[in-house]
Design a protein that fits this description.
Oligomer: single chain
Radius of gyration: 25 Å
Strand content: 25-35%
Number of helices: 14
Length: 485
């Protein structure tokens, strides 16, 4: 990618680093030569991002042109909104207290230049600001009452950089343009750069450590430059061409923010934000699958006003589900009406709608992995010993049933047909489609984004080819995007 620094006046940056070119906002907005250029990085250093100002339009049109602006229009809007300090406070309060505790004054301003600040003791805090609000030049204002709190957050103009910090700002910018960022280890420049989001501390991740290594090796064999990202690396997304999420996803979670930001910046992303939004809500799945004609167990959307309908329409036992349940959590087998009232009362405190389905006991659940509209792998997940789910959780801990992986051509045609129809109803991403087969009937249980792919389980049939197929899919999508541009 080529870098372009956009300023209001060329005199604002008279000696630019060799890695970038400097042009005015007027030229960028009006000269057709700057409308193309593929996935060019655009560093917007205009004086103001005010609505409908030149700076605003630089970020807006950079996104429309397929460029990668810093800041993008979403960050511009976030910086103008009232929620910026609240979001930062919620994500980084402990870091703020630790970083600012030694200060004797009760107020402090921190200027952040491309993710860095001049005071080394606040380096992590500066990085956190940039991670959440990726903009070239930021100023955060803090005040201490009983605790330190952020009271203001804004972008600043080049002429607002203190004279004593100008040289540091230029050095930070030069390093950023050259790709010299903290924790960045690049052996060679790859054709495409892939970020894999994971959480080393997650107890039940979608891929075990060996599988993550195999994904990385497969990507590198195809020519990707690969880096493993964690939650704190949010501000680095613009460095990459693609994002592969291997951390359990949820809407009210940083994984969704990563996916949404990646999609907005036109990165190839698995799991995409629409898939996360749809798959993590069983109410959406129930309604959409019914409309699409995908067979499911008898289903009812439950609310406070129709509890009495469960006995007649579904019967007992039945299965009650929180909309965002996952890994067998938030899914309760209900044996009678009294238990329904008790459990539903508790769950309805968290969500105004629940899903209740007929209980269909089977020896195992089918899991069909689907990628880009094609079947990828097939597993049978057996129920945990003496339990009705594949995972049993109790005071003694967690027990899982066995798993068996089969070739795709060994899967019954009806199972495969229902799985493919269900996946297509959600999107074109990577899904794990769970189904039950009883007699000649096949019923969808749910479609999962971010499905489990563990070394030694889902890869039993394809081996290393499984990881290569996923990475090849991302490479093909990147090549297609490049051709479009």
């Amino acid at each position: 990618m080529t870098g372009l620094v956009v300023v209001d006046r060329l005199a604002d940056w008279p000696d630019p680093p060799a890695e970038v070119s400097v042009i005015t906002a007027a030229d960028y907005l009006t000269d057709d030569r700057h409308a193309g250029g593929g996935r060019r990085r655009v560093y917007n250093l205009c004086d103001s991002y005010r609505y409908q100002s030149a700076g605003y339009y630089v970020s807006l049109l950079a996104g429309a042109r397929g460029h990668q602006p810093l800041p993008d229009i979403t960050t511009v809007q976030d910086l103008k909104g009232r929620d910026g300090p609240r979001v930062f406070r919620a994500e980084t309060d402990d870091l703020v207290q630790t970083s600012l505790a030694p200060l004797e004054s009760d107020s402090y301003e921190l200027d952040v230049y491309f993710g860095r600040c001049q005071a080394k003791r606040h380096a992590r805090l500066a990085r956190a600001l940039f991670n959440l609000f990726p903009a070239p030049l930021l100023r955060a204002r803090f005040k201490r009452q009983q605790r330190w709190e952020i009271i203001g957050l804004s972008a600043i103009a080049l002429d607002e950089v203190a004279p004593g910090q100008r040289a540091f700002m230029q050095a930070a910018a030069s390093d950023y343009f050259a790709g010299k960022r903290p924790t960045r280890k690049r052996v060679k420049r790859a054709h495409y750069d892939l970020a894999i989001l994971h959480n080393p501390a997650e107890k039940e991740p979608p891929s075990n450590p060996k599988a993550l290594k195999l994904f990385r090796h497969a990507a590198e064999d195809l020519g990707f430059g690969v880096e493993m990202l964690e939650r704190s690396d949010f501000g680095r997304l613009l460095e990459f061409d693609a994002l592969f999420i291997r951390e359990t996803t949820a809407v009210n979670h940083h994984s969704y923010r990563f996916a949404r930001r990646a999609a907005q910046d036109d990165l190839v992303v698995i799991d995409d934000p629409d898939s996360i939004l749809r798959c993590t809500n069983k109410v959406w799945l129930a309604q959409r699958m019914t409309r699409a004609g995908v067979p499911t167990p008898q289903t009812l959307i439950l609310h406070r006003g129709n509890l009495k309908d469960v006995a007649e329409q579904i019967g007992f036992p039945c299965v009650l589900k929180q909309p965002d349940s996952a890994f067998s959590r938030g899914v309760v087998k209900i044996d009678d009406e009294a238990e329904l009232r008790r459990v539903a009362r508790e769950l309805l405190e968290r969500s105004d709608l629940l899903v209740v389905q007929a209980f269909v006991p089977t020896e195992y659940d089918w899991r069909i992995g689907v990628l880009g509209g094609q079947p990828l792998y097939a597993c049978r997940y057996f129920m945990a010993p003496s339990h009705w789910q594949i995972i049993k959780r109790d005071e003694a801990g967690k027990q899982e049933g066995d798993a068996e992986t089969l070739p795709i051509d060994a899967v019954p045609t009806r199972v495969l047909d229902v799985a493919m129809k269900a996946a297509a109803t959600v999107g074109k991403g990577l899904y794990g489609v769970d189904l039950k087969q009883f007699g000649k009937r096949v019923a969808l249980i749910e479609v999962n984004d971010n499905p489990s792919i563990d070394a030694g389980v889902e890869d039993q049939v394809l081996g290393n080819d499984l990881y290569r197929i996923v990475m090849q899919h991302m490479l093909d999508r990147l090549d297609e995007r490049t051709r479009r541009q």
